[in-house]
Amino acid sequence: MKKWFPIILSIFVAFVFLQSLPFKFTNSLETQHIFGTLAEWSGFAWFGAYGGYMVGTAELIAAILLFTPLRALGALLGLGIMSGAIFFHLFTPLGIVMPHFDPETALQIGNDSGILFMMACATWLCALTLIIIDLKKPDSLLKRLLPIG
Known about the structure:
This protein has 149 residues and is mainly alpha-helical. The protein has helices spanning 4-25, 29-42, 45-65, 71-91, 115-136, 141-145; strands spanning 99-101, 108-111.
């Protein structure tokens, strides 16, 4: 189990990141809502147009790294991405419950009951666990690369 646990965590984190890419890379109505809200809140208008692509690219890189010898770096990147997501859900007008839209009419047809936020929290915990696992190894990648303990 000790060998498989990091792989299972990596699969979960990568799944969460990869399943969101079609929304981000096609600029879905949900993506427009999220990044448009954050752009308006922050005053950085460009973030509404490019934020989804930027975050999606970072998630794709993290997902790939999770299945290489650089797993700990992928987990660290994932922790950073999810820290941002959790912060923005909690401390901006974005909120926890995200709307669903009808793609044909662009009208809101429901919400996700906070599932996106819960997935961000679960992904954050999995990424943190992967980092802790790495730091406990005698040949820890993170200890070699970063100025930590």
